[in-house]
Amino acid sequence: MKRHSRDSSQNILRFFRSIISIVILTAIVLGVSYFVKGVSTFDAESAYRLSEPVLSKAGLDDTVIGEVAGKFVARMDEYNEENETDNTEEEYTDETVSAENTVTPKFEPGSDVDSPLLFTLAVMADSHNYNGVLAQALNIASEKDVEAVIYLGDYTDWGDVDSLKNAKTIMDNSGLEYYSLPGDHDLAQSVGTKNFLEVFGKNKYSLVIKGMKLVLFDNSANFTPLGKDDLSWFEEEVADADYVFLSQPIYHSSGFKMMGYVDGEETPEVAEDRERMLKAVRSSPHVKAVISADLHQSGNDADPERSDLYHIVSGALTESRNLQSSRFIYLNIRENGYNVEEFMLE
To answer: Where a domain ends, among 53, 83, 113?
Structure first.
C-alpha cells in the first residue's frame, strides 16, 4: 500500500515537472521566434539544446527533457499543418485590399522625397508556397504601376522543382517585369542553386533602369561560402552601383540576424564573405541602400560606418511563421534619393 502511494506521488511529481517544463519551453520558443531567424527550422534537437540548462535545474533528467522537447515541437508542426490553407490564387483574393489603401510607415533617410520620382520597385520575399498571397501582392503592385518586382528569396519551403515552377507561374501570370533571387529554403532539396537555376535561369543581375544601377546578388546559402568568381563579380559590379539587393542582410543592428549566422551561431567562412561584401558596399561611393529579406520582420538600420548608407529589410508575405502581418515594400527611386513605403496585407 505504501509502495503504491509512493509510486502515485512520483507520478504526480513527474506530471507537474512536465507541466513546468512545457511552460519554460514555451517561453524559450517564443523568445527564439522573436530574436532568432530560422524559426521554420526549429526542431527537437534545437529545443533540447536551448531548454536543457534551464529544465535540468527544475529537476528533470535528460530523458524527460528530450520527450517534452520532441512532443512540443511535434505539436508546433501539427499546428502549422492544421493552419496551412490551400495556396491557390482564388483562396487569397481580397477586394478590400488595393494599392489605394497602402499603410505607409514611410522611411525617408534624409533624401529629398519631393524630388521627381524616377520609378518604383515592389520588393517582395518569403512567400513560402503561399502562392495565393503572392498573387494578391503582385496584383496590388500592378495597380501602382511599378517598374519591376524584385523578389528576394524563399518562394518555397523545400526548393523542389514543382514548387518553384508553381511560384514562377504566378510571377509570369502577373504580367510584371520581375527579377528573382533564391532564399535558403529554395536551395534545400538540391543543396544548392541547381533547382532554382533550372526554373528561374539566373541568381544574380546587374541592371540599369533610368540611369540607376541595381545589383541583385544571391547570398542565401547558410553554410557554403561564396565562390571566388561570384564574390569577385559582386565586388566589381557594386563599385558603381546605386542600390544593392540581397537574399539576406550583410549588416543588422542585432549583431547576428544576418549572413554568416544560423540560429544565432556564426559560420566563420560565410561570415568572412559577409565582411568582404560589406567592405565592398561601404567602399562604393554611390550605394545608397542595401535591401534584403529572410528575417520575416521588416526594419532598417543606418550603417555604423557610413551615415548615408542604410540597410533595409523587407517583411515576409507568408502567413505562417511570420512575426508580422503579410507585407512587402515599395522602393521609390527619386532623382535625389529614395523613400520606402510598406504595404501590409491585412
So the answer is: 83
Residues 196 and 278 in one domain: yes
Grid cell digits, residue 328: 512587402
pLDDT of 158 above 80: yes
pLDDT band at 103 (very low <50, low <70, confident <90, very high): very low
User: Under a CB-based contact definition with an 8 Å cutoff, are residues 126 and 154 in contact?
Assistant: yes
Q: Quick one: CA torsion of 180, 185, 189, 190, rounded to 10 degrees?
A: 50
User: Of 23, 54, 83, which marks where a domain is finished?
Assistant: 83
The verdict on 65 and 186 lying in the same domain is: no
Nearest partner of 150 among 242, 244, 221, 239, judged by Cα? 244
pLDDT beyond 90 at 71: no
Domain extent for 195: 90-344
Look up cell 489603401; give the residue: 101
Q: How far apart, in Å, are the Cα atoms of 18 and each of 47, 76, 94?
A: 15, 17, 43
Q: 167: burial class by Cβ within 10 Å (0-12, 13-18, 19+)?
A: buried
* Distance from C-alpha of 109 to C-alpha of 337, rounded to nearest angstrom: 9
